[in-house]
Design brief:
- InterPro entries: G6P_DH, G6P_DH_AS, G6P_DH_C, G6P_DH_NAD-bd, NAD(P)-bd_dom_sf.
- Keywords: Carbohydrate metabolism, Glucose metabolism, NADP, Oxidoreductase.
- This is Glucose-6-phosphate 1-dehydrogenase.
- The protein is of the alpha/beta class and 506 residues long.
- Helix content is 37%, strand content 20%.
- The strands form four sheets. It has an eight-stranded mixed β-sheet with strand order 8-12-13-7-14-15-16-17, with helices on both faces. Strands 3-2-1-4-5-6 form a six-stranded parallel β-sheet.
- Helix 1 packs across helix 13 and helix 6 runs antiparallel to helix 14.
- It starts with 6 loop residues before the first strand and ends with a helix.
- Bound molecules: nicotinamide-adenine-dinucleotide.
Length: 506
């Protein structure tokens, strides 16, 4: 344990969903493992007038599923302090400062402070400005800020927000969360690539036909309709998670596995993603919105009748697209991406589709010479969630007389026990922020470039009225998403809808 874990967390938005579902359990897991010493304290702030005792009950309830003993839960919760606080009221920061100083003494925190902004981004600027003006940052020790997504709603707003935060915190002290970067298998992408010559030597346009990234959700918008209807799938998922995963897949090998070296390569990869013209957007990106649908015996309402969604909404709940990366490694290799709500199955996975052998010598005698090789491609699949692992599909000989080939899948999955015992995304990320490691956070240059890419798509789309709704809940999106690959001679490797269709359940 390092002395860095002597720290005061101040959580803005302490009564919110994120704090309860993710932050308190993650802090408890760190505490239980000893990654957080007894020298830590948490100030939870939000508007509700809670007492410390009530706050302790909330924290204990949030960690109940981790089955702490009563004593453990009590001891952990005793580190939490609640401060009713309206972030726009400057006088509240004076009170907050007093409590901060008191806890700094009590727990011997050496002035180390981590501010977690778990609330609406429209308050981020106000909060950091007030932290500075109240003098709360004028102490020894480190001062870091963890910021939740979304970081802006386009390049312009992100840039303004960034300038505001930069007035107070240096880039090295800003930890922009993209919780996908805390996931085990996203971190594993680098191990798969850089620890296996088999893959790294083939990781380029000579051997790879196309790359597919799918982030599918089977849920609808649930109670986030108000936010989602303003955002849509492109901004909610593509700008951050998808482009982050893409940059890890596409980057050059870093000279060392250090924060700076990795970040530099990721930024270079993002800079090589083609900025589309309007015409290119229409050709390479499609959007969708779900209407009601049925999957097996489950029935789903249409998006426009979800709570807090406009009944004439033109917000996309699905995006599929093709990114092109204009550099030596990837020239001509499509990176297909897709994400959406109310799809057939929940799952995040990556498929790396390798090129065919030059000639299929197993071609049957009836196949005309010169026609398409009919062997299935070799595919490396990386499963990110809900299962974690990877598989490789190869072609082998079918057992028996004669000589036919059949695909064989070499499959590795982390066991349920391994997954259970491995840290949660938020737990890893908080641990990293405590230790000053920002490898798995997004740097401003990455955020900025991702917005530039996405802004082009949004601007082209905003010029046309989409023909929504265009896919039934429970399917894998509109027909256009399948046509997008078909016109290039490819198809989506992952088609969970097929199973249901074959059984007439969809
Ligand atoms: P939430 O609406 O549940 O909570 C918001 C919190 O902000 C509450 O504690 C509320 O009391 C507080 N608040 C609002 N106005 C305030 C004011 N004027 N002064 C003081 N406090 C005020 O939101 P959430 O779901 O917890 O999300 C918080 C942030 O995390 C958002 O930026 C969101 O986009 C992001 N996020 C959330 C999730 C999630 O799973 N919930 C996932 C990813 C990102």
């Amino acid at each position: 344990m390092t002395e860095n874990t002597n720290v005061l967390f101040t959580i803005f938005g302490a009564t919110g969903d994120l704090a309860k579902r993710k932050l308190y359990p993650s802090l408890f897991r760190l505490y239980r493992k000893g990654d957080l010493s007894e020298c830590f304290a948490v100030i939870g702030t939000a508007r509700r007038p809670w007492s410390d005792d009530y706050y302790h009950e909330v924290v204990k309830e949030a960690i109940a599923s981790l089955e702490p003993t009563t004593e453990e839960a009590e001891k952990f919760a005793s580190h939490f302090y609640y401060q009713s606080h309206d972030v726009s009221d400057t006088s509240h920061y004076t009170v907050l400062k007093e409590l901060t100083n008191k806890l700094n003494e009590k727990y011997q925190l050496g002035g180390n402070r981590l501010y977690y902004l778990a609330m609406s981004p429209r308050f981020f600027g106000t909060i950091v400005t007030q932290l500075k003006e109240s003098g709360m940052l004028d102490t020894d020790g480190y001062h870091r800020v963890i910021i939740e997504k979304p970081f802006g709603s386009d390049f312009k707003s992100a840039n303004e927000l960034n300038n505001e935060i930069n007035e107070v915190f240096a880039e090295k002290d800003i930890y922009r969360i993209d919780h996908y970067l805390g996931k085990e298998m996203v971190q594993n992408i680098s191990a798969i690539r850089f620890a296996n010559n088999l893959f790294e030597s083939m990781w380029n346009q000579r051997y790879i036909d196309n790359v597919q990234i799918t982030l599918a959700e089977n849920l609808g918008v649930e109670d986030r309709g108000g936010y989602y209807d303003q955002s849509g799938a492109l901004k909610d998922m593509v700008q951050n998670h998808i482009l982050q995963v893409l940059s890890l897949l596409a980057m050059e090998p870093p000279v060392a596995f250090t924060e700076e070296a990795i970040r530099n390569e990721k930024i270079k990869a993002l800079n090589a993603v083609r900025l589309y013209s309007e015409e290119e957007v229409y050709t390479n990106f499609v959007r969708g919105q779900y209407t009601k649908g049925k999957l097996g015996d489950k029935e789903f309402a249409d998006y426009r009748h979800e709570p807090n969604v406009a009944t004439d909404s033109t917000t996309e709940t699905f995006v599929a697209g093709k990114f092109l990366i204009d550099n030596f490694r990837w020239s001509g290799v499509p990176f297909y991406v897709r994400t959406g709500k109310r799809l057939t199955e929940k799952g995040t996975r990556i498929n790396i589709v390798f090129k065919q052998v030059p000639i299929n010598v197993f071609r049957s005698s009836t196949t005309e010479v010169g026609t398409q090789n009919e062997l299935p491609p070799n595919v490396l699949t990386i499963y990110i969630q809900p299962t974690e692992g990877f598989s490789m599909t190869l072609n082998g000989k079918e057992i028996g007389q004669g000589y036919s080939t059949k695909p064989v899948k070499l499959d590795y999955r982390n066991t349920a026990e391994m997954v259970e015992n491995s840290p949660e995304a938020y737990e890893r990320l908080i641990f990293d922020a405590l230790n000053g490691d920002s490898t798995n956070f997004t740097h401003w240059d990455e955020v900025a470039q991702s917005w530039r890419v996405v802004d082009r798509i949004r601007a082209a789309w905003d010029k046309q009225t989409p023909d929504f709704p265009n896919y039934a809940a429970g399917t894998m999106g509109p027909q256009a998403a399948f046509d997008l690959l078909a016109k290039d001679g490819f198809e989506w490797i992952w088609q969970p809808d097929k199973w249901y269709k074959e059984r007439k359940l969809l």
